[in-house]
Amino acid sequence: MTGGVNKFLQDLDPISLKEMDKVALMNRTDTKFIFSIPTLVDTLSKLKQHYFALEINGQRTAKYKTLYFDTEQKDLFLQHQNGKKNRYKIRIRKYIDSNLCYLEVKLKTNKSRTIKKRTKIVDFETELSQVSKDFIRDKSSLEPNTLVPSLWNDFTRLTLVSKTSQERLTIDINLSFESDSKKELNHIVIAEVKREGNSPSEFMKIIKDKHIRPRSMSKYCVGSVFLHKKIKYNKFKRQILAINKLSHELTT
Asked: In whole angstroms, what is the distance from residue 91 CA to residue 142 CA?
């Protein structure tokens, strides 16, 4: 399936990481969509004139690995489950191909804005260093001594940049999650439109024509539901049902 993705991805004009800096969008609105690999292949074929493809060292896909932190009681997960506004997400993300690693503090505000602060670190820390703890204290209201590793996540990302507006489109495939066990979701695509305000999005026009609606989708929360069986997940039942439905459609 991903061979078809790579074929159409190569048809897009390239953009470098430096050129993409103007669309960093550290303070933005996010809109997510979940759909299948065949839908992605068809959609990419319609995006050529509207988007650049991020290319680094000749590569147009990038492998990511993420370690999420939470309390022993899964307080950060439960805040999302319970609909709390102004909630945090703490993670270490590594860009495998470039060997860069960052500790990130993400705040989702009560105005649906996503504000991300990050600092470069040497590598993953399963026990947070003092420097990392100080960064978390400075950038959030959390107590870092209560945070422990909760979930690992791997995926491959395609990044597209609009030719006409302040928009970045990330497309994640080959998802897998690991904690005490492992769950692979190779059949689904998570696409996320990141933009300033409500600037126009050609991708959103195309995906709307396919009758695919925006859907909230937290990798951390969905992965936690799949791997932590006793956790409360009423808020995420629709996401889980959608993922399972896509799996069923591709195997029947």
From this structure: 13
Q: Give the pLDDT band of residue 193 (cuts 50, 70, 90).
A: very high
Q: What is the 3-state secondary structure (H, E, C) of the chain?
A: CHHHHHHHHCCCEEECHHHHHHHCCCEEEEEEEEEEHHHHHHHHCCCCCCEEEECECCECCEEEEEEEEECCCCHHHHHHHCCCCCEEEEEEEEECCCCEEEEEEEEECCCCCEEEEEEEECCCCCCCCHHHHHHHHHHCCCCHHHCEEEEEEEEEEEEEEECCCCEEEEEEEEEEEECCCEEEECCEEEEEEEECCCCCCHHHHHHHHCCCCCCCCCHHHHHHHHHCCCCCCHHHHHHHHHHHHHHHHHHC
CA-based torsion, 123, 128, 129, 132: positive or negative: positive
Tens digits of per-residue pLDDT, 100-116?
999 999 998 887 788 89
- CATH fold of the domain at 2-251: Hypothetical Protein Pfu-838710-001 (2.40.320)
Q: Which two tokens stand for residue 97?
A: 């191909």
- Domains of the chain, by residue range, sit at 2-251
Percent of the chain with pLDDT over 70: 95
